[in-house]
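Submission sheet (multi-component)
Chains listed below:
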Amino acid sequence: MGVLSAILTLTLLAGVFGLLLGYAAVRFRVEGDPIVEQIDALLPQTQCGQCGYAGCRPYAEAIAAGEAEINRCPPGGEAGMIALADLLGRDPVPLEDEEAAAKPKSVAYIREAECIGCTLCIQACPVDAILGAAKQMHSIIADECTGCELCLPPCPVECIDMVPIRETPETWRWPYPDRKPWLQEAGDA
Amino acid sequence: MPEYPKPAWDFHGGLHIDDHKSESLATPLREAGIPTSLTLPLQQHIGQAAEPVVQVGDEVLKGQLIARASDYVSANLHAPTSGRVVEIAERPIAHPSGLSAQCIVLESDGQDRWGELPEPIENYREADPADLRERLRWAGIVGLGGAVFPTSVKTNTTGRVIDTLILNAAECEPYITCDDRLMRDHPGDVIDGALILQHIVSAGQVLIGIEQNKPEAIAALQAEIDARGLNEMRLVVVPTKYPSGGEKQLIYLLTGIEVPSRGLPLEVGILCQNVATTAAIADAVLRGRPLISRIVTLTGEGVTQPGNLRVAIGTSIRDLVNEMGGYTAQAQRLIMGGPMMGFALGSDELPVVKGSNCFIAASREEIPDPVSASPCIRCGECVKVCPAQLLPQQLYWFARSRDFDKTQDHHLFDCIECGCCAYVCPAHIPLVQYYRFAKTEIWASERERAKADHARRRHEFHEARLKRLEEERQARLRKKKEVLRKKPASGGDPKKAAIDAAMKRVAAKKAAQRPPEQSQGPEQAPEQEKEA
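Outcome: structure written.
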């Protein structure tokens, strides 16, 4: 009798909770994968494709699906990789392309005298940061440029340069205070 | 030193340090000469840089607007003397980075001719506070205590009730005496400005917080208050303790009210302004003059005659030093600001800006080279002296390991960078440097995040646009295909259709003429169409 009632109670409970969960799954259904949003929020949105995907969002989707490593985003740098590792509970991995990550942040600049107005760069720009029309000189809106370099290959006259962004007193950062080697040892141990 | 009644409240921590004020107070206030060349940075305030309204080659008069506030949080800039604009270009400015910024370079004509000025508002009590604030905005007045926040913005109470206006006359940092000098020599201006401010924000009472190491300034202000019979204005003498001039610290000292973490004094019904700012306000309202000069302390063992000068904004520090008899042999380093919160300058060919209150040409004994830091021994001295009641040691660990989220959890942004913790640290750890490092890193990452979000929106818009264009193209193609498909049904050749239509019309006419054969025409037409 005791066993029977226990089995009955548990079955009943399981049934009730199953129904509850089933209802919740339908009622509070989340459209899309929230983890993709979170990963996408950590990516630098340069849309440069250096990760091998068509943009930041496809890369985020690939990471979420477990298809891609978290170390393939050079613009995000090590800080970005560590943020992704924290979010996903994965181990940090060295960046795939250290050289690209070490590049200073830049914006594209069109040498306007040489531009022939072919509009190829305008079509390549993922954030519509290039202004111009067919057979008219093109110009880059520096504030909108993400420095993805996607406009460089299509340019038939190679009139686009990448210009490093200059530091101003407003964007300047205090340097990390000097440390003595032995202090580093003592502190970080 | 006379004894004053102790205020009811005392803020946590703080330091009693040698004030070194007497050196620069031995001589009266001097008027500095107008140099031949003035360099005026467009950004001398918090907010957006001003926009030049003059061009290279323009002749300008003293007090003429040369750069206009470009945003709500921004400030106007006026010509400190008459002359010619010779350049608008990047010049090195007094900034810890040693970087350059856009400046207007003015060549003085030596005549110091005033331009047209707005009418003085003598009867300010009758004036609309909004008009008075507009006057402050025109005059380019910013907080002269060092924070350089536009005063017209700070006095916008956004509908909140201000019951207390506090005048910050504490001047707690060692060496600096420009406010002391101002109060001794021009107490009337300070009080006038305070009354104007009181009218603008309609504050019930005015408290002037001053450290007790300034007996002459206290006497001068008290005499002015008594002479005018101001009942709602009270001078509160506070003990000499650094940093009693910190805004939140002074508010607590005077009223016992704590300003919330990361909050503004406005939220607790208080407005705090520096005395030099109120004097500038009096100048702007009662005399219609813009902020084109300020009192600067030049002191330290490295300068021949330490003292205070009224200097035109844009004068180079070197001109200032020459005015005070030049450097002595002991001069080793140049500091802008005080020894606690100031920063070292790499050159003296930098302009005085609205926020420059003091320059110290220090000897090696006064400001020694930094001693190399040793490991933290967790003594907790820093916690004892922190006037913001933070945990400097924790902040240090987190800033050092670049764990910026944790630094923010420990209220890094409530740190006023007063330097008390670093001053008492027996391990000589440059604590404030770590906090400044962490703060600027956090700001940089916030900027990057904002830029990334912006880029994401633009990219999404770009994608949506491409999709829309593609859909439109598809729709056009579909339409064309449909038209092509329909055409054979309607007779294929448009010429033939036109002929058919004409034939129909003729048949109809004939039918009308011959009523008995009426039905022939209309029946014929559909048949023809079917055949086609």
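Remark: The radius of gyration of chain B is 36 Å.
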